[in-house]
Amino acid sequence: MKFFDFLDKQPAIGKLVIVEGTERALAERAMDVLLDRLLPPEVRDLNLARFGPDDLGDMAHLREALRAMPFLADRRVVVVSEAQTLRADPRRALFAVTEDVPEGNTLVVSDLLSPRSTRPQSFGSLAGRGALRIDTTADEPTRARFVAETLERLHATAEPRAIAELARSEADLTTVRNDLEKLALAGKKITLPELARETLTIGDPKAYKYASALAAGDTAEALAIAHELFDGDRGAAVALLSALAAESRYLWEAARPGGQIPDRMRWRERSLRPLARRIGARRARIAFEGAVHGIESIVTGRAGNDPGDHRTLVDRISVGLSDFLRR
Fold first, then answer.
1. Cis peptide bond prior to 40, omega within 30° of 0
2. How far is the C-alpha of 301 from the C-alpha of 295, rounded, in Å?
3. Alpha carbons 71 and 59: distance in angstroms, whole number
4. Which CA distances in Å does 75 have to 19, 67, 105, 127, 256?
5. Which residue, 195, 183, 132, 189, is CA-closest to 157?
6. Containing H/E element for 168?
7. Residue 296: which pLDDT band, with cuts at 50, 70 and 90?
């Protein structure tokens, strides 16, 4: 069940709930809603147990918590967070526990993997109809509604084209939320130009072509695209380096063991995987950090305030990382 379907339809909550998908902002909200529905505040402390990955051990304490009787409440609730970080053996042991939850109590497992994940296989797909599955993966309509609701909570407004741009962007929703909170402080309607200047969540499609060309080793093509973008946009440096950071992050995820390419980028997986194998997780991570440091130097003013300084910075980072990634 998609996240907003869970909010709107308020399905029955049984003995097992799997919060899955890739958007942490939605997962956190789903957890809050679940606890509000399951345990009134006045009895929550007495009937809620939380376990992180380091708390599971041999699962004995988890099983004990699940078997405990509720106190002045209809049920006890046990929450396991960050299950996606567990290694294979603990995951198997935890799944065995999910199959033996006593009637009357509820186990909630936060397993922030794609529902289609096979390495490791997601708990949601293993549990199937035996669990209420809340999928936090966000498509464009989900992102648009998230943006609209965040603006409403902040008592802020935005141009429709700014909302549409955020809905199409590749930034995670936590970043989108943080950017909107920052922009809302100005107390005026958020416009697309303001969004483009002040956030790292959107960018010209040319910026992503620049990043792809650079990662693929075509430095000349990447620089040509960057210079073309600079000619028409004084603020191009942040867009270019943001795109480079995003591309490097995808390659880093594709290269590291257990890494997950975001669902919205699955269409690029066939091209990303071979490139990630060649570059490797270490170099992809260093490229990501280099791009982020470049953005920080622009935002903080360390790189200077003149667009020419920013153009020089992008050229230097581009050439340096291109040589590094080709080694």
1. no
2. 10
3. 23
4. 19, 11, 5, 21, 40
5. 189
6. helix 160-168
7. confident
As a whole-number percent, the residues of the chain with pLDDT over 90 amount to: 47
Distance CA 191, CA 159 (A): 5
Q: Does residue 200 register a pLDDT over 60?
A: no
Is the pLDDT at 263 greater than 70, yes or no? no
In 3D space, the residue among 28, 168, 215, 17 whose CA is nearest the CA of residue 105 turns out to be 17
Residue 172 and residue 23 in contact, taking contact as beta carbons nearer than 8 Å: yes
Helix axes 160-168, 140-153, angle to 10 degrees: 130
Cα separation of 285 and 288, whole Å? 5
**Residue 202 Cα to chain centre, angstroms:** 15
> What integer best gives the mean pLDDT of the chain?
88
Helix residue spans in 169-204 (DSSP H): 173-184, 192-198
Helix (H) or strand (E) holding 47: helix 41-47
8-state DSSP, 186: T
CA–CA dist 325, 260 (Å, integer):
21
In sequence order, the β-bridge partners of residue 190 are 158
How far is the CA of 76 from the CAs of 60, 63, 147, 190, in angstroms?
17, 12, 34, 44
User: What is the per-residue pLDDT across 51-78, written as a single tens digit (0 to 9) for each?
Assistant: 999 898 889 999 999 999 999 889 999 9
